[in-house]
Design a protein that fits this description.
The longest helix has 31 residues. The chain has 225 residues and is an all-alpha fold.
Length: 225
């Protein structure tokens, strides 16, 4: 429906605008007031809340509470000038998230497991052709290598003492690179395999949400066909 399409586009535009504003604000705070309590709350707060909400929603309530408490304690110590410096917390957020993603995607490539992108494709298409199974496995590997490369670049810039450059990479360039990788894979997919069924962002988002809900039950351990 035209109205539904317009509403979907409006939500995507609003989400993109909010993401850009958050990235710009994070970069400004990290480079101008990295040790302030407000900087720590604005930069680290959303990730902590999302992670805690995800753990709480999946039934891991003790883990959610413990993670939130530890993050709050570290942030308060950094803001007071004691404990771990704030910039190390920022590094832990950026490199840690990408390392966790690399480990997650990579773990689904082990023998006897179904690659993550293959599992998502199965939720969208149902039955997969051998060509699509092979392609989605390779895409899972590509994302694994991408996330690992992001960790390496993040650590390299940070340890080189180029914090302003690191902040630019972490806050501004990382979302750009990730979006470019995502969009680039979309075009490569249908350039190499025009026979594949076209899939829109809404279908992919629904598949992702469905996989996340099923993950605690062991959906990611399904055997390869």
């Amino acid at each position: 429906m035209p109205g539904g399409l317009a509403s979907t586009r409006a939500r995507w535009v609003a989400g993109a605008t909010a993401a850009i504003a958050y990235a710009a604000a994070s970069h400004a705070l990290m480079t101008r007031a990295q040790d302030s309590a407000w900087s720590l709350a604005i930069v680290l707060g959303p990730l902590v809340l999302v992670g805690a909400a995800g753990a709480w929603g999946s039934g891991r309530r003790v883990l959610a509470a413990a993670g939130f408490a530890v993050a709050l304690l570290l942030a308060l110590q950094a803001a007071s000038g004691h404990g771990i410096p704030a910039r190390w917390l920022y590094l832990a957020q950026h490199a840690g998230v990408h390392l966790a993603l690399a480990a997650w995607f990579g773990s689904t490539l082990r023998r006897g497991a179904e690659p993550l992108i293959t599992a998502l494709a199965r939720r969208v298409h149902g039955t997969l052709t051998p060509a699509l199974v092979l392609y989605t496995r390779r895409v899972t590997l590509a994302w694994t290598l991408y996330f690992a490369a992001m960790v390496a670049v993040s650590l390299g810039l940070f340890l080189a003492g180029l914090f302003a450059h690191w902040s630019l990479f972490a806050n501004i360039l990382t979302p750009v690179f990730t979006a470019a990788f995502f969009i680039g894979e979309y075009f490569v997919r249908y350039w190499l395999h025009p026979e594949f069924e076209r899939v829109g962002p809404q279908q992919m988002l629904r598949a992702w949400r469905g996989h996340r809900r099923a993950a605690p039950a062991g959906a990611s351990d399904a055997s390869l066909p």
